Amino acid sequence: MKTISTLITLILLFLRLSSAATSGTFDLLTYNIAGLPAFLTDNGVPGDKATNAAAIGSKFAEYAYDVIHVQEDFAYHSDLYEHDNHAYRTVTSGNVPLGSGLNTLSRFPWTTFARVPWSTCFINEADCLTPKGFTFMRLQLPSSVTVDLYNLHADAGDEQGDKNARRANVQQLLAYIAANSVGRAVVIAGDLNDRYTESGRSIDLLTAAGFHDAWIELVRGGVAPAAGSANIDCGIPAGTNDCEDVDKILYRSGDSVSLSALTYIHVANKFVQPNGDRLSDHNPIRVEFAWSTA
Predict the structure, then answer these.
(1) I want to staple 199 with a disulfide (CB 3.0 to 4.6 A). Which of 29, 104, 140, 228 is the partner?
(2) Confidence category of residue 11, pLDDT binned at 50, 70, 90
(3) 66 or 18, which is more confident?
(4) Which residues pair with 140 in a beta bridge?
(5) Considering its fold, how many domains does the chain have in total?
(6) Is 188 part of any domain?
(7) Is residue 91 part of a domain?
(8) Could you tell me which of 290, 292, 289, 291 has the C-alpha nearest to residue 30?
(9) Domain range holding 279?
(10) What sign for the dihedral angle of Cα 94, 56, 52, 236?
(11) In what order do the strands lie in the sheet with 103-106?
(12) Are the C-beta atoms of residues 118 and 155 closer than 8 Å to each other?
């Protein structure tokens, strides 16, 4: 009888393990929400900033994105979170000048989280007045599958000092990934403040390191715009996916988890005020990913 009981237990365990998901999908949204205090800047966005942040939070809840990375989540963080209902959300690092403005809202939990400030900044666009940088988290998908997520806000501006700082930012990020995400599936998303059309662009460092840009892959047919060519500027809200934002989503597969980008879309038309005005000076970008285990 004991042998039969043990056999049944083993069979049930096998069935449970074999029924575990080995593939699935999740979507990720990145959005710079223009949350600097209104007395510093209006970001060129009409309306009240607290009201706009509350509206963004409501839309996060309404559209139920799996993972949301935000940048410039500073003075109106409480308005944003009050109107959102994601189960897992990072604790703010604070308003300017103490906080980085980087936060994540997610349907999935994570096991590791870190905030890392940039070692290099250039004062031209007031980048040194807040501890801009990146965050790292290990997201838990179903069946104990994990993917490493990075949310970043790089140095802004067009002067040579800005370009040098951005390059240093990307190099610092890649060094961190090399130390903490060896052989792991990774998604990098956020405001890179860089375009492929820019001369002296630093985004090439990411693609050279094996990261795939979802916009290049799905919209551009794998061909990046030439450095120094005319900008393919997006309006806000963007009416097409063909234009290029400074906001990017890149990814790579890992040794045991494969990632592929299924869709890339501007969802800016969903993030507007009742009168049609924009809620931020950036477009929100959504990418849907498929994952599978090796």
Answers:
(1) 228
(2) low
(3) 66
(4) 146
(5) 1
(6) yes
(7) yes
(8) 289
(9) 21-293
(10) positive
(11) 88-89, 103-106, 67-71, 23-32, 285-293, 257-266
(12) yes
